[in-house]
Amino acid sequence: MQPMITFALAKGRLAEQAFELLEQLGIDCSEPRNPGRQLVLWDKKNNVRFILVKPSDVPTYVDHGVADIGVVGKDTLLESGRPLYEVLDLTFGRCRLCIAGYAEQHQSATRATFRVATKYPNVARSYYDAKGQTIEIIELHGSVELGPVIGLSDVILDIVESGSTLKANGLTVLETVCECSARLVVNRVSMKTKRDRIREIIDGLADQVSKLNN
C-alpha cells in the first residue's frame, strides 16, 4: 500500500485552484471541496489526507511534519522563514509584495528611522536590513493602506494585485520587493521517507502547470 500523504491547504482560492490540479492526477478532492465543519478530509482510495488551515499556518504544519506537502503563497512562505523544500511554482495566485506610499514624501524623507506598516514584519526587516536602512516596524493586519494616509507610517509593505486600493487612497507603488504566487512546499523528512510518492506528485503537478502555461 502506498504511504499516506497529507496536504496542508489554505482555505479559499488557493485551495480551490490546487484541487483542480490534484484532480488531474486522479486524486479525489470531493471531500475537501465540501468540508462542512470537518477539519480533516480524505481520499481514502489513494490514501491522501487533507487539512484545511489558515494561510499563515500552512508552513507550520508542514515544518512540524503533520503535513507532508503544502500549498502556500510565496509571501506567507517568506514571512514564516520555515526550513521547507520549495519544490514548485504553481503559477496561480500571482501578485507582488511592494513598498507603497506617497511618492513625494518618500523622496523627501530625512528621518534616520523609517516607519513601515505591514503584516509582514520579517520580510520588511530582511528587506531593509539588506539595504542598510533602519526602520521601525508597525504591525497591522487590516487596512494597511491607512498607515500613510493618517501619518502612522511613512510607507507600507503589502501585497498588491490590481493596485486599485492604493490608487483610491492616493498611494503608489514605490518599490517591488518580490513577485509572488502559490508554491508547493514539502517537509524535509517526508521528502526522504516518502520520496517516490512525493516525487510522483511533484512531477505530475509540474506537468499540469506546464500544460496550463503553454
State the helicity in percent bands: 25-40%
- Helix-strand category: alpha/beta
Say what oligomer this is.
single chain
Largest sheet: number of strands, sense, barrel closure: 6 strands, mixed
The rounded Rg comes to: 20 Å
Strand order of the largest sheet: 2-3-1-4-11-5
Q: Total helix count?
A: 10
Give a count of the beta strands, DSSP E runs of length 2 or more.
11
Distance between the termini: 35 Å
Order of helices and strands: EHHEEHEHEEHEHEHEHEEHH
Beta-strand proportion = 25-35%
Shape: elongated
Overall pLDDT, averaged?
A: 94
Low-confidence stretches: none
Summarize this, please?
The protein has helices spanning 13-23, 30-33, 58-63, 74-80, 103-108, 121-130, 146-149, 164-168, 188-193, 195-212, and strands at residues 5-10, 40-43, 48-53, 69-73, 85-89, 95-101, 114-118, 135-139, 155-160, 172-180, 182-186. The chain has 214 residues and is α/β, with parallel strands linked by helices.
